[in-house]
């Protein structure tokens, strides 16, 4: 790609890697939480809902700082990960992926939850009477019906992860090649004289990807309605 | 294979306290909406856990509160046909049918073809449920339930959401199911004409309790049940064999009380039919009337008279070994001096019998 210089290209590639792993690893958790919120009837459901949505409302710098406290090398979780498994998140691209995943989580859960709520539990009941166990019902009826919604949520989460800035820079800083994702790179380019041209090119990339993701996600969300109507 | 139900349950203000046995054939749970019929079927299916009771199908105990037994829904092997079909919208008709066979572990390979034939859904196999009419969807739903190879079929008002024409389209399939599928059916309905067409056994429910249970022919000709069925819907059913199709368009049927003339019925000579004769369509005469357009004048004996709260009287009649009901005014009953044991003539216009009240007999 001639459009992007090597430094810019490095940022885009890193962003893609971070967003990919952030989306993939949070997918099962997102689906589980969406199921709990859509179908579960348990005390504390509203609290869980609140926690999931917190990153949407909190200043990203707060989320990033909390991540640093928890997952930093001396943090309660980060310390255990470091000493027992040799996994370090702080100031690594894996940490950027964690920050991106947490910031994108509410969007993912929201899209999936809407899809699950559109499925009539009576269909699942009918599958049960035909001899399908709960797990089989989920795999053969619920999951195929909500699949477009799950993809819509994943696409949205991916786009959000691509653009995450505040929590990322607080948690893992802005290290070229390691944690300098597209937004961090734009920020860095704007700090140096003559960097504006690079910044603008990355801005164009960001806007294009975000727009594509939104359109794609909308398209998949509409597929849920079509699937459920059975036409 | 028979079903034995003993269920007690409380839902808010509503108390369910039901005991009955359902033998082979079609057992109709009959009652107004809110009488607890669906709760009973849901308890049998395992979708509702009663607070107390015992449910047994054949030899298998599905639920026993005393022994803490409750077989989970997916292991009960009962086919459930719901009011709204509940076909899987992401699958075609064929996939819906195969789904049932797969998840139930039904190994028989000929099943699909037989069920498709029985229900006449061969042309629908590649369609999605959204492209089916209500009647078609319901036939597919029945097929899907059958392909799960159930010990028993549960049907919760499967025709209630359909209009008259669609109902008439499905009823013959249900009659075939009764004789050909070899699966006992528990059928919920609040529609008397469905009871008359399909039931071999009826359980009448009222406010969460069983009011009366027995063979369909006995219950439908029981004057005591007229209140429950509704005076305009009450009527006995008789089984009759097609004698001949006359050239003038009248079909003659033989039953134990004589010959019954009906407007042309599409049925082979010799076939057994079940005919419902509404009580309000039967006139009574103490002498054989002459010079009258009605074709059916049957000698009968009065078995009982039952006065209702209004001006009407329900007269139970014996014609051969069959029973009929006639609904007349108290004034007529007095004028004719009808009493138990008196002989008279039942008069029935041929055209009074609706085509939808003529169905396949139990023997056919």
From TrEMBL, chain A:
The chain crosses the membrane at residues 20-38, 50-72, 84-105, 137-159, 199-221. Residues 12-215 form the ABC transmembrane type-1 domain. Its main location: membrane. CDD domains: TM_PBP2. It is a multi-pass membrane protein. SUPFAM superfamilies: MetI-like. InterPro entries: MetI-like, MetI-like_sf, ModB_ABC. PROSITE patterns: ABC_TM1. PANTHER family: MOLYBDENUM TRANSPORT SYSTEM PERMEASE PROTEIN MODB. This is Molybdenum transport system permease.
From TrEMBL, chain B:
Keywords: ATP-binding, Cell inner membrane, Cell membrane, Membrane, Molybdenum, Nucleotide-binding, Translocase, Transport. Residues 2-232 form the ABC transporter domain. The keyword Cell wall biogenesis/degradation does not apply. GO terms for molecular function: ABC-type transporter activity; ATP binding; ATP hydrolysis activity; molybdate ion transmembrane transporter activity. GO terms for cellular component: membrane. It comes from the Bacteria. It holds the Pfam family TOBE. Residues 291-357 form the Mop domain. InterPro entries: AAA+_ATPase, ABC_transporter-like_ATP-bd, ABC_transporter-like_CS, Mo/tungstate-bd_C_term_dom, ModC_ABC_ATP-bd, Molybdenum_import_ModC, Mop_domain, P-loop_NTPase. This is Molybdate transport system ATP-binding protein. The keyword Nucleotide-binding applies. NCBIfam families: modC_ABC. Gene3D superfamilies: 2.40.50.100, P-loop containing nucleotide triphosphate hydrolases (3.40.50.300).
């Amino acid at each position: 790609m001639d459009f992007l210089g090597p430094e810019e290209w490095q940022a885009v590639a890193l962003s893609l890697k971070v967003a990919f792993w952030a989306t993939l690893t949070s997918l099962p958790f997102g689906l589980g939480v969406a199921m709990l919120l859509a179908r579960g009837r348990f005390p504390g459901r509203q609290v869980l809902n609140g926690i999931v949505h917190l990153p949407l409302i909190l200043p990203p710098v707060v989320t990033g700082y909390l991540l640093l406290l928890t997952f930093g090398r001396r943090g309660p979780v980060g310390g255990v990960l470091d000493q027992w498994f040799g996994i370090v998140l702080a100031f690594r691209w894996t940490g950027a992926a964690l920050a991106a995943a947490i910031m994108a989580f509410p969007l993912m859960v929201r899209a999936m939850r809407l899809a699950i709520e559109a499925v009539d539990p009576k269909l699942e009941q009918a599958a049960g009477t035909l001899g399908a166990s709960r797990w089989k019902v989920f795999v053969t009826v619920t999951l195929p019906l909500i699949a477009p919604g799950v993809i819509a949520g994943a696409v949205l989460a991916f786009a959000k992860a691509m653009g995450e800035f505040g929590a990322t820079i607080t948690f893992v800083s802005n290290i070229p090649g390691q944690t300098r994702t597209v937004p961090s790179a734009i920020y860095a380019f704007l700090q140096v004289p003559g960097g504006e041209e690079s910044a603008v090119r990355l801005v164009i990339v960001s806007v294009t990807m975000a727009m594509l993701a939104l359109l794609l996600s909308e398209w998949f969300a509409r597929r849920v309605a079509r699937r459920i109507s059975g036409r | 294979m028979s079903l034995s139900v003993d269920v007690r349950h409380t839902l808010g203000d509503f108390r369910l306290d039901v005991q009955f046995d359902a033998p082979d054939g079609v057992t109709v749970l009959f009652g107004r909406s809110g009488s607890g019929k669906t709760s009973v079927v849901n308890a049998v299916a395992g979708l509702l856990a009663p607070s107390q009771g015992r449910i047994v199908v054949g030899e298998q105990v599905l639920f026993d509160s005393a022994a803490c037994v409750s077989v989970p829904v997916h292991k009960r092997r009962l086919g459930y046909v719901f009011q709204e079909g509940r076909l899987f919208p992401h699958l075609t008709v064929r996939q819906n049918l195969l789904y049932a066979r797969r998840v139930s572990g039904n190994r028989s390979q000929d099943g699909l073809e037989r069920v498709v034939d029985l229900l006449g859904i061969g042309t629908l196999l590649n369609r999605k449920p959204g492209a089916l009419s209500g009647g078609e969807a319901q036939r597919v739903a029945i097929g899907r339930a059958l392909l799960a190879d159930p010990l028993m079929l549960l049907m919760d008002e499967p025709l209630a959401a359909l209009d008259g024409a669609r109902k008439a389209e499905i009823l013959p399939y249900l009659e075939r199911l009764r004789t050909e599928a070899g699966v006992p059916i528990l059928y919920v309905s609040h529609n008397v004409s469905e009871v008359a067409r399909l039931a071999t056994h009826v359980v009448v429910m009222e406010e969460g309790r069983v009011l009366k249970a027995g063979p369909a022919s006995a219950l439908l000709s029981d004057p005591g049940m007229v209140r429950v069925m509704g005076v305009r819907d009450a009527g006995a059913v008789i089984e009759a064999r097609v004698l001949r199709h006359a050239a003038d368009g009248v079909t003659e049927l033989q039953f134990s009380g004589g010959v019954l003339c009906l407007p042309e019925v599409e049925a082979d000579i010799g076939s057994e039919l079940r005919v419902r004769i509404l009580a309000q369509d039967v006139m009574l005469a103490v002498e054989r009337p002459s010079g009258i357009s009605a074709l059916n004048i049957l000698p009968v004996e009065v078995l009982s008279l039952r006065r209702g709260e209004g001006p009407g009287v329900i007269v139970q009649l014996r014609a051969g070994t069959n029973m009929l009901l006639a609904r007349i005014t108290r004034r007529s009953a007095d004028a004719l001096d009808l009493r138990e044991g008196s002989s008279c003539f039942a008069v029935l216009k041929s055209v009074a019998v609706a085509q939808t009240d003529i169905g396949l007999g139990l023997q056919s």
